[in-house]
Amino acid sequence: MSVTAAKGFRAAGIAAGIKQNGAPDLALVVNDGPRRAAAAVFTANRVKAAPVLWSEQVMKSGQVSAVVLNSGGANACTGPKGFQDTHATAEKAGEVLGRGAIEVAVCSTGLIGTLLPMDKVLPGIETAAAQLSEHGGEKAAIAIKTTDTVHKTSVVSGGGWTVGAMAKGAGMLAPGLATMLVVITTDADVDDATLDKALRAATRVTFDRVDSDGCMSTNDTVLLLSSGASGITPEYDAFADAVRQVCADLGRQLIGDAEGASKDIKVEVVNAASEEDAVEVGRSIARNNLLKCAIHGEDPNWGRVLSAIGTTGAVFEPDRLGVAINGVWVCKNGSVGEDRDLVDMRYREVHIVADLAAGAETATIWTNDLTADYVHENSAYSS
Amino acid sequence: MSVTAAKGFRAAGIAAGIKQNGAPDLALVVNDGPRRAAAAVFTANRVKAAPVLWSEQVMKSGQVSAVVLNSGGANACTGPKGFQDTHATAEKAGEVLGRGAIEVAVCSTGLIGTLLPMDKVLPGIETAAAQLSEHGGEKAAIAIKTTDTVHKTSVVSGGGWTVGAMAKGAGMLAPGLATMLVVITTDADVDDATLDKALRAATRVTFDRVDSDGCMSTNDTVLLLSSGASGITPEYDAFADAVRQVCADLGRQLIGDAEGASKDIKVEVVNAASEEDAVEVGRSIARNNLLKCAIHGEDPNWGRVLSAIGTTGAVFEPDRLGVAINGVWVCKNGSVGEDRDLVDMRYREVHIVADLAAGAETATIWTNDLTADYVHENSAYSS
């Protein structure tokens, strides 16, 4: 059901010809209101793509009527012409939909450093607008795929209101945010300040804790739009929890579809002195190429976990550290623990627990293994 | 000539049986004086192997008479027993050589988290001592190899004095220091404070700027020993330059032998506002898995360079950034530059220049590409 699960939204996904292989590459999401409140979180990368720079301007009003998304080109590092193209995209959508261009957010994904074929994009917007439908969410989700092998959607319903979403992302996933485009819609009647609060609370513990390959994109965008069409204003906690659930679900789907991965790895840091320490240690473990290779080889190489912990500034004593892999405490008190041959690593999901023995805080980072397929996928052609 | 190029040193390298395949695995380096001054730099990893903890104690006196090095086991994360084993190693070498154990530095390399077979190590020290020779430097260099495909040595001579060295390292190479063991010897008559100053100045711009895979070891050790046997005390600048040359030479050899690598990549950051900015940006580029895959595929994907720069806190304006790959400015003013088809990437060495257009400082970081062979080498067996 994707972004059209919530009432008040229509969507479409079409093949505009941006991708040379003819696959779907342009999506349109429209908020029919009555409310048009919105919140957004963008990449922390200081090199921001033109659509990010534009959408940041759009967000200043807290109002979004429509979102144009394209795959097949990131429109990043494309200079003034790239920004003009994004602006023209918003103008075209505004014109076709009868809205102001400044209410149209734009998201792009694909190769960095090439201009979009605007002779395909602008007619594509007209085509997509003609196909807008209350059942178009799936097609929109399909049209934003790049190296994704599956499209990603999530829906959570409350008492009479719904939060629905679509996401794309399969590589270049790293904190602040993970590399991806996400559009979340809701018919809950919620103002932009509340949307912003709920969205930031959710992304901080979900997308910001997905780290596929340590690489941060220039195009990351997460949008949360409210139509208010249910007429119901939920309790904040219930609404925020629904947004967090949708984000967590999509974050897990992103890791599950990470480029070349054969293992999904849950890195849980426990007994940290602070949440910041737990996140820092979790990220250090999740980014350790040697560990990621070892997990690929189904090798419970806890020495590489300790090496990674040792590079952080977190509070811990080396001789109190513990590491469990799939439930077996292979490292205790910073040294050899239970027999590593007891660790069963046959399944796709691997669970690493790092015990810092320094407090009571915890954090979980999701990552995946490093494989020859990842290398192939990112070296055989420009992406 | 290795560590015996300088007068006043003897060395040996033997197969003690620590490695199950019977390859050389134990080296001994002895300083016969008259001086026994020494300096050392150790890993910045907070999880330090037993031999590092021991050698840090040894260095408090600034005197080192001998170094015992073994491959086949890192003796890291091995608890109190591991430290006792290192201590017993130093005691045994001291006894055999007629020196105090506290003057014997110990270095170990290999798998983390397993105890050394002391029934092989201790007799091995006796065997090695019996084979000590002024021509034993090559054998010592061979005995410290782990996944190295070649042994690494370097020699620079001044006016009547010499600096010679051996190194091991092929993976887990990351700043602070690169993962490796290095023993540098000199017959220049230099005190421990001067050795320390020259060594730190050298490692800061050489080993600390080698970043193979972003992973920092628990065992890194660089030792610089002076016998004073030439009777000559060189000018500081000439001596420091010789030490720097040897470290730069070995650092380049480490990258040239990095696990699975097919490309050696020189990342040169220019026109930075500060040297710290240049180093931060260089490391960010050198650690970007997507870029390292692209270089493997001979793809001059400058967008990935800009993405990496964008994650740093360095001073720059996105629309003034420039990137040259093998002499072709593929990115100018943060956007498309010269034709990327002009870039010739057939050769092993690849030169990336990142121009921050923010000042006059520069720094160079060496790294290598990310390959399926790297994944295989680090997943097919525990290492």
From TrEMBL, chains A, B:
Residues that bind substrate: 146, 168, 179, 259, 378, 383
GO BP, sorted A to Z: L-arginine biosynthetic process; ornithine biosynthetic process
List of catalytic residues: 179 (nucleophile)
One cellular component (GO) term of this entry: cytoplasm
Reactions performed catalytically: N(2)-acetyl-L-ornithine + L-glutamate = N-acetyl-L-glutamate + L-ornithine; L-glutamate + acetyl-CoA = N-acetyl-L-glutamate + CoA + H(+)
Domain of life, per lineage: Bacteria
Function summary: Catalyzes two activities which are involved in the cyclic version of arginine biosynthesis: the synthesis of N-acetylglutamate from glutamate and acetyl-CoA as the acetyl donor, and of ornithine by transacetylation between N(2)-acetylornithine and glutamate.
Protein name: Arginine biosynthesis bifunctional protein ArgJ
Natural source organism: Streptomyces misionensis
Originating gene: argJ
